[in-house]
Amino acid sequence: MEKNKIKKKIFLTALLYIGLGILLLQTVGTTSYQLYTKSKEKKQFEKELAELKDKEDELKATVSKLQDPDYVARYAREKYLYSKDGEIIIRIPE
Asked: Is 93 within a domain?
């Protein structure tokens, strides 16, 4: 009878350790997957940030150019076909 009790305790202990092992593996797996997902998101956001910084630099350069009255006048003539007095505009198709 004593051997059966010992076998039963060993079996229950082994079952407990197996359960804890499975729980540990599940936790590690879930955490690893979350880290992988967050890493991919971080790379994507870093790429998006770099693109937005480039766009910001372009916009700052445009704002700087628009402070120059000569540039604004030339831009208006080219884009909206405005002309100076006595100037004739001939548009050439691209």
From this structure: no
Quickly state the pLDDT bin for 73 (edges 50, 70, 90). Answer: confident
For 39, how many CA atoms within 13 A lie in the half-sphere containing its CB? 6
For 13-49, the pLDDT digits (tens) are 999 999 999 999 999 999 999 999 999 999 999 999 9
* Residue 75: Cβ-neighbour burial (10 angstroms; 0-12, 13-18, 19+): middle
CA distance 73 to 51: 30
* Domain assignment of residue 56, yes or no: yes
Mean pLDDT of all residues in 1-6: 83
- Taking the whole predicted model, whether its pTM rises above 0.85 is answered as no
Residue 9: domain span: 2-80
Cα distance between residue 17 and residue 22, in whole Å = 9
Binning the chain into helix, strand and coil, the percentages to the nearest 5 are: 80, 0, 20
